[in-house]
Amino acid sequence: MTVWGKRAAFVNPTSTTHLSAQDIQAYRMQTLGDIAERVPNLSFTNTTPNNPVLMVRGLGGTEDEGPVLYTPVLIDGIPVPSFAMGQMFDFSNVDVMRGPQLTEGVNAFGGMVSAQSRDPGNRLGGALDFEYGTGNRKRATFSGDLPIDASTSLRLSVGGETADGYIHNRALDRRDTGGWHGWFGRIKLLHKDSAGGEWRFSLHHMLNHGGNDFFETPQHARNHVSYNTSEGVNDTEYLIGSAQYHRRFSQRLILDVTFGGASTDWRYSNPYSVFSANSGFTLPTRQIGGSVMLSGSSGTLDWKGGIYGQQAKRWAPYTFDMTPYYASRTTATLGTANVAFMGELGWHFAKSWRLVPSLRIEHVDSSLSNWTSSMSGDTPYAYSMQESLPRQTLSKTAPLPGLKVEYNPQPSGQLSQFGWLSYSRSFLPPNYSPYGSYSSTVSAPYASSYGNNLELGYRLGDLTGRWSVEATGFANFLSNLQVSATNGAGESLIGTAGTAHSRGVEATAHWKPLNTLQLNAFLGLTYAAYDRFVFGGSDYSGKQMAGTPRSNFGFSGEWHPVPGWAVNASVVRRGRTTLYPSSSIQNAPYILVDAQIEKRWKHWNVVLYGHNLTNSSYFTRGLSGGYVVAANPRQLGFRVGVNF
């Protein structure tokens, strides 16, 4: 039985992919985009390789257009926009949870990604790693554990990275216009008190500066060639503070408290030649919040309940300047405050059966302030227009019920099985479109999104851990689905699809035929489409949601032929899809092949790796004008590390 966090994986009644620190390192998953391409029914879009926005089962993608998170990303329990994640470092595990999560703290409409940093160890020690790879990519990291006393220890992780990137700009005769440089660090304190409580305090900081030479025609992008006249700007930063407390008062009462805040910044501008204009934005976000959760059991009943609250503010200025012909500048400040009460009650009404009703009551206050818009031009004639709005506010309260039936019989022989059937009501709060150019459209908020979600899952496994299989089917029926779109006046807005649906299957299998060989496989099938959606003079009804392949599947394996040696390989195929958000350009199906060979001595390790070995060419973003962003090409490299 595999255990993560404080719950047994085998009896977790939701479709989840668990990635350990060993998985992340063995398959070189260094960004959320790497994860999204290698787990079932998770996809992403990005304007730069380090800023992925996640989509689960077809749902998501609007994070850089509005403040709503379809799929929140948590670092030590604190939510951050996925586009702020950048490089991942020193995580003990990452869990990808698909489907709504009503009782996990923050509201999750499509799913949730939860990353936990490594806990400090109770022995003095450290590790130093250096990596070099394609694109003149250099990365160095240090991590160390410092015991302070028998119950308190500290962990420090720091690192830096620089790369030229994978773009050849022939107009500038440069190969570093898609490059980046930055550093990252984390300090974490773990204290176990005399009453049995566990205190965790962590501070995380990531700072990355880079170019933005990625938008090109499909022909040029496919070959990672650019003719842009400048490199553009892509700078990201986050600062996260987290405090967590866990205490088991008895076998029947557990307390979990999380509190913290995050400050994220994204400064982005395109090369002038992309639109023949200076265009870009700054996107600082500040948020603070936390949760208090109690859980326990008594006889045939068990329960979990608590409260979650968060306050966030985002500033969203945007500039599009093609002077003297046309110039547009907008400013906006978006504020949200939400509080949620949640609880579930489990009843073991028969020997192998459990009934779990749940309820989440979500209240959200949203505001738009400091909105201004100016449009002007001098050619062919001079004109100027300025608009502003007073503070706009709205509130929404939504009850979100859920119901699960679980089947968990006692193991029979060497077999263990678990099944579940669940219904949940999901909700995305209303808000305002910050990048609109006209007060008449910006002042009209987009509506709340709702989902009625069904999930049926089954797991079967060998008690010795030799093998396991899992399959999950889902169907989501959606109304007023929030979608990033462009209206007839050219405004970038959040529209709502009257009705939509998403349905499909996820399946995984693990087999260990030998003690030295582990084999894995996964399959994801998703059909996500708009049933009724007319926006900006275009009818999207019946069309598949952009950025979501109908199928993705893969195989991976880890082999230890002799002590000290490890070989990892994976093959993933992702199906055909149109590009997000509004491109008619299609991604053909593509295959990703990764491999890694590692040799370990007592204190040393050396790794040779290859990422996208077949050099598959595909795109991760598309504009209606025909420009696209290409994914990274083949990457080769080595890593040397020492433990002490």
UniProtKB/TrEMBL annotation:
InterPro entries assigned: Beta-barrel_TonB (IPR000531), Beta-barrel_TonB_sf (IPR036942), Plug_dom (IPR012910), TonB-dep_rcpt-like (IPR039426)
Q: Where in the cell is it found?
A: Cell outer membrane
| Membrane topology, record value | Multi-pass membrane protein
* Keyword list, A-Z: Cell outer membrane, Ion transport, Iron, Iron transport, Membrane, TonB box, Transmembrane, Transmembrane beta strand, Transport
GO CC term, one of those recorded: cell outer membrane
Q: Where does it mainly reside?
A: membrane
List each copy of the TonB-dependent receptor plug domain by range. 13-111
Q: Which GO terms describe its biological process?
A: iron ion transport
Mind telling me which Pfam families this protein's record contains?
Plug (PF07715), TonB_dep_Rec_b-barrel (PF00593)
- Per UniProt, residues of the TonB-dependent receptor-like beta-barrel domain are 219-613
The record's family statement is:
Belongs to the TonB-dependent receptor family.
The molecule here is called TonB-dependent receptor
Kindly list the organism's lineage.
Bacteria, Pseudomonadati, Pseudomonadota, Alphaproteobacteria, Acetobacterales
